[in-house]
Specification:
The chain folds into two domains: 53 residues; 56 residues, no CATH class. The protein contains three helices and no strands. Helix 2 packs across helix 3. The chain is rod-shaped, with a radius of gyration of 33 Å. The termini are far apart. The model has no long low-confidence stretch (mean pLDDT 77).
Length: 111
Amino acid sequence: MTEANTQSAECLSRLTAELEALKQEHSTLKNVSAMLVKNLEQLTTENARLKESRYSDDYKKHWRMTYAGQAMQAQMAQIDPDEDSNYKAIAYDAFCAADAMIEFIDEKDKL
């Protein structure tokens, strides 16, 4: 009889230890999943904010200058250095090209 009680007590002790380990694992998984959900919410919010800022004037101004610079480099590479060129016309053409690129990107995003 005492042997059965001892076995029952050992079994209960092992089950209690396993239950405690499962509780800790559950708590850890719960914390990790909460952290993942929080990170996903932050990424979603950040993505929405970036998408909204994409249509701001500063954003477009930045890319207009960047694209114009790239277009101007391409145009300048084709000019003979000894030739007298109209640099204002080149700059104007570069900004027209930049505006066309931005408009193309905006139209593509609307599709």
